[in-house]
């Protein structure tokens, strides 16, 4: 892009920001102002009654199940889950490793089972025999206290070869014949260590779509990282495969990053030159991002996050957006977004954020920098754990996952020259973010 076209782009964004200044100020108390662009507002009493009700259901591909457009990606509190179901959410995602199947089972056993779509997931590791996978699937059924699972997925499938695992498909067919399983699915948000472009998220999921045996997919997709996900969604539409989303909100907290940079500068230990240079690079990018936020009035995190979810809901190829419901406040944050679409002014805000702050988002399911890392640090995996901690509030889960990581941890990044940053096509300060993630996940 030429300098002239870059200036035109910035002029467009600046004019748009000035014209929609109310987006970032004066809307905190309104709550439903943006929603009115989809549904007319009624009297105040009715508005309050309808605030926590799902307003839209979409057909989940060939399953033909009418799924709520906002769904539960993670929930561990039975009271919160009960409220979700009361609000009309009917898609509940889980996994063998989440530790919440018992909670889900305790709640859904008292509900109309046919009205709830329950998904759980198994990682393909160690024993890949039919018997081994069957035994684990039956344990899931026990924990969920249900006669059948609506969809059982391969959890975080990292390789194209895994989608054809004979033991998995043989076990799924037996469960189907017993009436214990209805559909098969697959999830992917990047490999544990990126080595082969043919094993990237889009390659794996498109291969699964072409395989023909998978009915539902769970993938990473958001307004900054929309290209690869859009390709998968297109193929899923063509194959009539159900689509569920995760990692839809890439909005970061630039002021918090600045605070952490200051703490890193006051480390108190002898700081190697490479570490000082890393901090300087991070600080320069943070100052630039902060200036962009002020210029385009992007400082309302709640409204920006709402717009990020609406971006996903506006794609007709998306069937449901999985959100982490950690507490009752999460209900107020996500459920009112049901049935809404991205407005013009929000598009301009997201475009501005992507241009000015997108470099602070380490793309999920990417890993393009990993092959050049001299230490073999699994960047994508560590940043995913950090996302669980900071964006989803799953602190203990994230720290446990990081502690169990067998690959080199990000403490090795401190003294590195930062070759990962040179390899990143998006200008992400990878080394700095990894160093921060290590401090967060290990309480270093």
Quick overview of this protein structure:
The chain folds into 2 domains: 52-250 and 301-342, TIM Barrel (Alpha-Beta Barrel), CATH 3.20.20; 254-300 and 346-442, no CATH class. Helix content is 45%, strand content 11%.
List keywords for this structure.
10 strands; TIM Barrel; two-stranded antiparallel sheet; alpha/beta; 2 domains; eight-stranded parallel sheet
Please provide a written account of the structure.
By secondary structure, the protein is an alpha/beta fold. It has two domains: 52-250 and 301-342, Alpha-Beta Barrel (TIM Barrel), CATH 3.20.20.100; 254-300 and 346-442, no CATH class. 45% of the residues lie in helices and 11% in strands. The protein has 17 helices and ten strands. It has helices spanning 3-19, 44-50, 78-87, 101-108, 130-144, 166-177, 201-211, 227-239, 254-265, 273-295, 301-313, 328-334, 344-357, 379-390, 395-404, 419-423, 430-442, and strands at 57-59, 66-68, 70-74, 91-93, 117-122, 149-154, 181-188, 216-220, 242-246, 320-324. Strand 7, helix 7 and strand 8 form a beta-alpha-beta unit. Helix 11 (301-313) packs across helix 13 (344-357) and helix 14 crosses helix 17. The protein is globular, with a radius of gyration of 22 Å. Residues 1-42 have low confidence and may be disordered.
